[in-house]
Amino acid sequence: MTDWAPGPALAAYHAGVTVICELAAQFTGEAWGSATACPEWRAADLAGHLRCVADDCHEYLDEAPVSRLARLMARGSGPESLARKMARQNAAELAALPDAAGPEHIAAFAASARAYAARVLAVWDLPHHRYGDAVVTVGGMVGACAEWHLHAWDLAAALGKDYQPAGPELLAAGWQAGLPHRPLDAVVPVDAAVPVDAVVPVDAVVPVDAVVPLYAAAPVDAVVPVAPGGAAVAVAGGVGGPRRGPASAWDALLRASGRIPR
Q1: Could you tell me the residue range of the domain that residue 156 belongs to?
Q2: CA-CA distance, 93 to 128, in Å (whole number)?
Q3: Residue 28 carries which DSSP code?
Q4: Cα separation of 130 and 140, whole Å?
Q5: Do 168 and 126 touch, CB atoms closer than 8 A?
Q6: How much is the pLDDT for 225?
Q7: pLDDT tens-digit readout, 133-160
Q8: How many domains does the chain have?
Q9: Could you tell me the CA-to-CA distances from 262 to 65, 67, 144, 163, 252 in Å, in that order?
Q10: What is the crossing angle of helices 146-158 and 6-24, to 10°?
């Protein structure tokens, strides 16, 4: 079983932010106009989207469990309907952003994302929203940080490189904890739900600095180990490096997010 616990989860979260910043630093002015794996977005648009998502995380936490995201999820709409609604929201938020270059968006994203991580530990087990019978906790919502790593893959692809995180099984557990409306092909068991009226202690503190090395992002020109004894992906090479097979957790995330065919 892969547990989505605060220590490794926050380390994975910070690793995603770090690798996005490292990849973004490799873009030249012209490269920010490059196409990405998200067909409607250039690299600069993707940077703006990341900024919007990080800011949205703060809004949803401020207003949980009655945020606009919670109200949308409470309707129990299917994944396709939710995807359309979220795509419209993403487009509207991106259009409303102030004019800025890619590096400025990335800097704002990183600051906002790191500030969010500093807020969540004290309320980790409290309810964030509900989808159907599943209660997604604040900690479960942090599992959506798989998006940081997926968008790192997008940025790497725009640079003609490949990216694969060092701990995809952990990210898959986080995805399932935070995104029950978008199930993975391969199930990674994780117990993420708590009763809505649960009483949760908020005085336990795990210093983030102490756990980040457990899941540190590798340099983006290095060979990244997939798992102990597993294959490695050279992120300096072409897109689509070697993987551990069609059932790997990273491939499951790429499929669930629409980046490779199911």
Answers
A1: 6-256
A2: 22
A3: -
A4: 11
A5: no
A6: 35
A7: 999 999 999 998 899 999 999 999 999 9
A8: 1
A9: 33, 32, 20, 19, 9
A10: 20
Buried b (16+ CB within 10 A) or exposed e, 226-261: beeeebbbebeeeeebebbeeebbbbbbbbbbeeee
**18 belongs to a structural domain:** yes
**List of long-range contacts for 194-202, beta carbons under 8 Å, 24+ apart:** 194/125, 194/127, 194/135, 194/137, 195/135, 196/65, 196/127, 196/130, 196/135, 198/125, 198/127, 200/123, 200/124, 200/125, 200/126, 202/122, 202/123
H/E segment holding residue 225: strand 223-225
SS3 233: strand
Tell me which H or E stretch contains 104: helix 102-120
Q: Are 76 and 131 in contact (CB under 8 A)?
A: yes
What's the Cα-to-Cα distance from 145 to each of 95, 98, 139, 169, 199, rounded to whole Å? 23, 24, 11, 13, 25
Prior bond of 65 cis (ω within 30°): yes
Query: How many CB atoms are closer than 10 A to CB 172?
Result: 26
Q: Give the three-class secondary structure for 42.
A: strand
Q: Is residue 1 one of the residues assigned to a domain? A: no
**129 φ/ψ angles, rounded to the nearest 5 degrees:** -165, 175
Asked, for residue 149, whether it belongs to a domain, the answer is yes
- Count of alpha carbons within 13 angstroms of residue 232, beta-carbon side: 13
* Torsion over CA: 51, 176, 127, 85 (sign): positive
Contact 172, 242 (CB under 8 A): no
Report pLDDT digits (tens) over 207-243. 333 233 333 333 444 333 333 322 233 344 444 444 5
Residue 163 near residue 233 (C-beta atoms within 8 A): yes
> What tens digit of pLDDT does each residue of 102-139 get?
999 999 999 999 999 999 999 999 999 999 999 999 99
